[in-house]
Amino acid sequence: MTTRENVVTSRLSKLMLNNAASGSGGVGGGGGGSAALQSPTSPGEQSQSELNQLKRDADPQFSRFADYFVICGLDLDTGLEPDRFAGDNLHCSPLDRAYKSKPLAHYPENVAWNPFDAHGICMLSLPQGLRFRTQKHNIEPRFHSFATTREDGKRCYGFSLVFYEEIRNRNICGAIHTLQSMFITELSNGQQTHSLTRVKQDGPVSRSLPRHFKVAGQAPQSAQSYYDINKDKLYVAKSISLICQAPYAFAAQMFLKNLYRCLPRQPGAGISLESYVYNILYEVMLPQPGKSIRVYLPPTEPHLPAIALILQRPLLATELPLLDFPLRLLFKYLGVECVIQLLTCVLLENQVLLRSTDYQRLMIVGECITSLLFPFVWPHVYAPILPAALHHFLDAPVPFVMGLHAECEAAHKIGSEAALCFVDIDKKHIQLPEELPVFPHKLDFMAEIGSVLDKFEVERDRDQEPSLRNGRASGGLGGGVGSAGSSGGGGPDAMISSCTLPTGLQAARRSKERFQQLQETVYTLSGSGSPGGGVVDYQPLIAHPSRIDHVPRIADFLRRKGGIRGTASPVGSPTVSLSSSPVGIYQDVDAVDATMPRRAEKQKLNPVDQYYQDLRINNSLREIFLNRFVHMFHAYEYFVIYPNQARDDWISNRETLQNFDKSSFLSDQPEHHRAFLSRFLESQMFATLIDNKILAMWEPQPDEQLLLFDQRVKLLRRRHGENMIAASSYEPCVVSQDSQQGFEKRLNCIDIEVTPPSEILSNRAAYFRSFPLLEKGVLNQECASSSSPADHHPAP
């Protein structure tokens, strides 16, 4: 990384998360508090003292689920203040302007390993600033995640729920009304060059505005931007957030959403908000690598019991690192081809700008695409949610991955940059940099990904996807997708190039719907080759092993209809004869379409089960991406230039040393892959991997990601021979099932269980009209909600 790039990255990190101060009052990890932990799967009963000892031995920096619970919003003591970081917004209606938000409270006051950054956390918890709304707006709560990168390169994650509460303070309502009156007066006098809408002669007249003021037809939300103090209710944004070291996004989302639902708005059963917050801050532990833990989160209604959720962490020695954000949504938002194009841009360290109306979509795409880089790590500026205060970083001449809300003006201005990868998530559109090389084996890669998405029935745009036939990709792709990166690429008919069908089935081949119903099999014609006397061998698709049962069903149906003569063969390889009439065969295909039972509508999973299913999808897809890098660089060790000097001397001179024989490595690669590989070998990501490989000679504990990558390379060589230099053809992933078994074991055999939240207040309020500030006395330090060992019982 260049000096200039280091300066930019450092400035961004300082603005987004302040780590300068280290306050007192940190939360210690000792003191046998109330972390009621139970071990349901250990043999016999584990005593409470042993469980308390487990917590005392754990470093709280790495064992606690959350560091802070934060409430941000309008400070009534200071009143309305314009958000100076949002720029000049006087041309907007007061309801469209951003005002300054402040942290109203955070618990605990401070933790030693993660000093509280009031400005950075508030800026990302409410990235649009403090906004006002009326009942005419959509004021449903919205959840989003965010990430900050510290100066030491470590990421810190935040999770925020933004909701709107009614303003009953007459001074605030009067201030908004006064600002709006001034805005309309200036607008009417022509002193504003912009307005909440432009005045047009043919626009509809709004009765909420002066008679001569007209609303443009292309701005339907204009009337919403007017506040009538006598008729409208005024609402203001507020957020509740968790600041965490580990990105367990689903658990954080469920906690915040259900905590908001558990806010008592009328007297009734339930426990205090403080009890839920105390539980997540002090009692919930993170699982250790290779382990799982059952936690209890707030219910959807105050009177209901807590919701059980299993958190698990992969074993780093053999499994990919934790990814809690769903790759299912990445492919649903963008489609397979767009994801591969975006991955190519990130691998080549282009500037990447994401755009969406949903902050959570920005975060999902950013987190998922960077996780697919494994074993490589994105080393540059990373801000999947870029607040308005940091928009000037878009001008930085360094690689970055940043996300902008669609309402930001910068998101429209920068989209025309030629060297930028610009992704409009909502429109599923990607603007690529000029002369972007094709990812190696692109069509085969896309087809393998599509087969996994099909297995899990992931909904997505399939228009540009190739098919997988006997492990080879085929099919025409529009939008500039070439066949250079595929070993099996071809024209539009390549999808069924392995099929030699009787003449009467040519029309059926052109029917996309019928073909999709029969795409579970591959037809290869043998025998005399005549249309009436050929023999069809049904081979199950290796990409869809779960669908082999379709083959005998189709064969049996045609046999009963008289379209097949002969006896059935074993499942997966029946050999049958087709009717001599091409027309009759075509009619049989129609009959299959008409009478084959339709697949039952997919049953919708509950949120917890969908979360577990998303983790399975994540594992399967990530193994495919890792498999590509393993095949691409399975011989990289042969080209590493190891130093013949001491560690310190090498470190001081490594910027001037050649650590990898790039020219020799490229000479062994297929020619149509060299365009991509030659550029990737120059990236900071690849250089870091090679540096870690060399440092492993001296380090007692080498980089964990490198160890896993090297382990997978050894497995590949074991299958193909140690002297394997270049992969001759595309080979799908074959090891995902092994890592999947580890996940299923953790899901079914829980190592530790945390008791559900229990009441920690002697007297709790009956109800609230808005989300309140919580009791500091019980949340600023670890206390004993139920410290007596007699209160805890091992789980069955």
TrEMBL record:
InterPro entries referenced in this protein's UniProt entry, alphabetically: cDENN_dom, dDENN_dom, DEN5A/B, DENN_C, Tripartite_DENN, uDENN_dom
Residue stretches of biased makeup (Gly residues): 23-34, 473-492
Segments forming domain UDENN: 83-700
Biased composition (Polar residues): 37-52
PROSITE patterns: DENN
GO MF: guanyl-nucleotide exchange factor activity; small GTPase binding
Residues covered by region (Disordered): 21-54, 460-492
Name of the protein in its database record: Uncharacterized protein, isoform E
Naturally occurring in which organism (per UniProt): Drosophila ananassae (Fruit fly)
Gene responsible for this protein: Dana\GF24770
